[in-house]
Amino acid sequence: MNREFTFFSWSVQGQTNPIPVEKAEGIYFWDMDGKRYIDFSSQLMNTNIGHQHPKVVKAIQDQAAKLCFVHPGNATEPRGLLGKKLAEVTPGNLKKTFFTLGGSEANENAIKIARFYTGRHKILARYRSYHGATHGSIALTGDYRRLAVEPAMPGSVHFLDPFCYRCPFGQKIESCKRECLSHLEEVIRYEGPDKIAAIIMEGVVGSNGLIVPPDDYWPRVREICTKYGILLISDEVMSGWGRTGKWFAVDNWDVTPDIITTAKGITSGYMPLGAVIVSEPIAKFFDDKYLYAGLTYNGHALACAAAVATIKVYEEDNLLENAVMVGKHLGQALEDIKSRHASVGDVRYIGLFSAIELVTNRETKESFAPSVMTEVGKHLRQNGLFTFIMANNMGSIVFIVPPLCITKEQLDEGLEIIEKALKITDQASM
């Protein structure tokens, strides 16, 4: 019925082969035949607290029994509590939140707010990025999915990434002079600083290869934005909520953006919710100016209650601390895997946000054909591991992004399955 009557995202519909999921708990889920899978992508990098946490399930049940929905112009207790909590966990002077139903809507409204506030039109984003699938957010997205729907929102300008493994400027780490930052500033000058409302970047690039930037990259982009009066937006939809060992990825570099957009881990996927959190100056700007933004489900009571409970779980279960501790173990394990397998070109990791990039040759860094990665995916699925695999012009990548509640032992169990699957790519690389 799913295949006959519903569409699946980003796929040729006749080739879809979904797992019929019956139940889930912690880092595991089970299909209708009772087969257990280790969830190494947190479904899609969002079920950060693990599946079916009883405290969040109960909070949803309690709120549903009391009040599910009100007019978006009315106030509710969970909306207020969540707004206050977001002001506490976000960096610097970020204070006020506009709620949406997901990350794409959050980025759409961040664009609006940035344009209203600055009076400027252009938005800069990176090529290796994904910001959503709606009209404005897909225009900001840099990857191949943007091309299929162009022309999209005008005013979107892309620039190159700080991707050290595949440096677009042909540099090695030892010779790097941060040409990526010089390039960004040159693009700004060509596009006109007085025309650019904002630069939007993922805290750590997610589904386009999991790119962890050099330590000085975010601080220096912050300096560039301040220099030209451009707003800095951190898209923390995927990299936020403890995924990197901090509340938000930018916290790793002590950077305060002007706007944070987020979704996914804010409720751990238990309810649909997104958020645009803005600095105090931006918030005050709209005290006497009309905000041209609205959604029927803005501040949805049930979703906000789920988020309040989810944030409590992050704190009470020490999940950020666990992401750091187990993340160190993961990083070392990935380096060991790289040393043992010729087809592993690079491993990238920060907290429990990691990926293995596979290549046919370490010198040429050529990616594998999609058919090879399909075989890798089949092997993982047959052996009870579910994760996100990328096989396109952005590379051949296996993602390791488990729930933050995972133990070292559970992590090692999943990594063992992945390492056996790497025999496929090792043989194909010979």
Please describe the topology of this protein.
Layout: H1 2-5, E1 21-25, E2 28-31, E3 36-39, H2 42-45, H3 54-66, H4 77-89, E4 94-100, H5 103-118, E5 122-126, H6 135-140, H7 144-147, E6 156-159, H8 179-191, E7 196-202, H9 217-228, E8 231-235, E9 259-262, E10 274-279, H10 280-285, H11 301-316, H12 319-340, E11 344-350, E12 353-358, H13 370-382, E13 385-386, E14 389-392, E15 395-400, H14 408-428
Parallel strand pairs: 3-13, 5-6, 5-7, 7-8, 8-9
Antiparallel strand pairs: 1-2, 2-3, 4-10, 9-10, 11-12, 12-15, 14-15
Helix pairs in contact: 3-11, 4-11, 12-14, 13-14
Q: End-to-end span in angstroms?
A: 43 Å
What share of the residues does DSSP label as strand, in percent? 15-25%
SSE series: HEEEHHHEHEHHEHEHEEEHHHEEHEEEH
CATH architectural type of the largest domain:
3-Layer(aba) Sandwich
Q: In one word, what is the shape? A: globular
Task: Throw out a few tags for this protein.
alpha/beta; single chain; globular; 14 helices; Aspartate Aminotransferase, domain 2; seven-stranded mixed beta sheet; 430 residues; Aspartate Aminotransferase, domain 1
Walkthrough of the structure:
- The chain has 430 residues and is an alpha/beta fold.
- It has 2 domains: 2-52 and 318-428, Aspartate Aminotransferase, domain 1; 54-316, Aspartate Aminotransferase, domain 2 (3-Layer(aba) Sandwich), CATH 3.40.640.
- The protein has helices at 2-5, 42-45, 54-66, 77-89, 103-118, 135-140, 144-147, 179-191, 217-228, 280-285, 301-316, 319-340, 370-382, 408-428, and strands at 21-25, 28-31, 36-39, 94-100, 122-126, 156-159, 196-202, 231-235, 259-262, 274-279, 344-350, 353-358, 385-386, 389-392, 395-400.
- Strands 4-10-9-8-7-5-6 form a 7-stranded mixed sheet, with helices on both faces. The protein has a 4-stranded mixed sheet with strand order 1-2-3-13.
- Helix 3 (54-66) runs antiparallel to helix 11 (301-316), helix 4 (77-89) crosses helix 11 (301-316) and helix 12 (319-340) runs parallel beside helix 14 (408-428).
- The longest helix has 22 residues, at 319-340.
- The chain is globular.
- The mean pLDDT is 97.
